[in-house]
Each structure stands twice: as C-alpha cells, then as structure tokens.
Amino acid sequence: xxxxxxxxxxxxxxxxxxxxxxxxxxxxxxxxxxxxxxxxxxxxxxxxxxxxxxxxxxxxxxxxxxxxxxxxxxxxxxxxxxxxxxxxxxxxxxxxxxxxxxxxxxxxxxxxxxxxxxxxxxxxxxxxxxxxxxxxxxxxxxxxxxxxxxxxxxxxxxxxxxxxxxxxxxxxxxxxxxxxxxxxxxxxxxxxxxxxxxxxxxxxxxxxxxxxxxxxxxxxxxxxxxxxxxxxxxxxxxxxxxxxxxxxxxxxxxxxxxxxxxxxxxxxxxxxxxxxxxxxxxxxxxxxxxxx
Length: 292
What we know:
Blueprint: E1 12-17, H1 33-48, H2 53-60, E2 63-73, E3 82-92, E4 96-105, E5 108-120, H3 132-142, E6 148-153, H4 155-173, E7 190-196, E8 201-211, E9 214-222, H5 231-245, E10 250-256, H6 260-265, E11 269-277, E12 280-288
Parallel strand pairs: 9-10
Antiparallel strand pairs: 1-3, 2-5, 3-4, 4-5, 6-7, 7-8, 8-9, 10-12, 11-12
C-alpha cells in the first residue's frame, strides 16, 4: 500500500461523519472502525455500478467473499469530522477482485486500505472464475462508462421490464393494491426504464400529456437498494427530455411526501396542500422545462 492515493483517483466517493461511538479513549477513531468505513464504501460502490447486490449475485450464480484486508494508518480522524472514503476496483483476476480504498479529510489522506475478495459458488464457497459480465461492469465503471442505459417505449414494449419494479416498489414495499399498479393511462404513456449492464431493470417512470404543452410524470420507481445513487434523477431527466422534445414547456407530478425533498433539489416547486393517493400522502409539484 502507499500514501500516494489522491481523492481524484476515485470515481466512487462516500461521505461520512465520525460518530461518538467510533472514537476511542485517545479521542480519535478506533483503528478497527476504518474497516467498517471501507465496508460501507463498498456498498456505495455497488450502488454506483447500478447493481442491487443480492439480486445481481443471484443473477450471476455466485457471490464474493473477503479473503484479505490490509490497512495502513497515516493520520487520525476525530469525532464529528466529515470524512470521505474513496473506493476503486484495481484489478480483476481469474477469481479474485482487488479493491483499493482511502480515507480523506479534505485532501489529506488519513488511511489507505486494500481488500481482496474471491468470487465463489455460494453453496460450496469454492472459488470460480469471475463472470465476464461482472468483469465488464468493473472495467466499464473505472474507465468512466455509463452504468445504465435508458429505454423509452410504449407499454407493450416495456411492460415486461417495468412490471417487476412496480410490483416490488408499490405492492410489496408500499402496500399499494396490486390492481392500482397499472391503469388505463399506461396505454397512452411513454415509459422509461433504466437497465444496468446485467440487463436488470433498476428504475422506471412514465410520461403523459396533462394539457397542451404540459407534461405529467408519474409511476416513478427505483430499486430500493439503489436509492441515493442518482438513478431516480436519471429516469426523471430522460422523461423531461422527452417532454421537452415534443414541445412541452412545463411538467407536473404528484410526489409522495417522503420524496418531496428529492424533487425540490431538482428544481420542482410545491403547489397546494397535502392530499392522499393510494393511501399515501402526496403533494403536487411542477417545474418549467427550459430549452435544451
């Protein structure tokens, strides 16, 4: 390992704040917690790949197991400091995956870490070759490639990909009646679905014509494991681009109150009071569509 790891070396950066429980009697982060930081950053790394970890491993027929972890310390983080953890895939061997990490305070490197994983059969935990598809995902991400493709189409074309997401998010997670997941408006809607490099649908939404030059976006769904990774923004942007291309000048949507902040950060404004749809609190929001 080496201290010559800079923040700019990493595409995936996790931001954390040191908690009281992580500080030892010396009033610095206890050494073992840095491994927890790296492990947390690994979860963010999978999210950045647009791979819902459990579903992706099931799809590939394998799993990854930590074989070796090495940590080198240069300086200490202290209570309530904001730190950043960089994580990158440095090498993919036949069955091994080598990850390099670093903990930063600003531009100062505090700790570096190397994690070596083995790809294996989950039933026997015996190593097996890293699938070509997974190898391609790692190489693509580290070289700056997009981790999803956006497919736009009608209900007949995309329903098979959109339906699993709606069932998981709306029915299983939110308890909405399955009969309400699809409605008559879907037949005339433009649907968008995000597909990762393994061919898994991970996000979706639909676009309707609410009024002349006014678009309406709805049925936004993102795999729960991947939320916080900007994939919802990717779906929304694709639908707004489609609305703009057909001449719409504004867009409205009914946002669940728990997602109101997400839309506000993207420039949507709230109108009126809270109301219920499908037993869930919503607010109406809108945004002007500037010309591209």
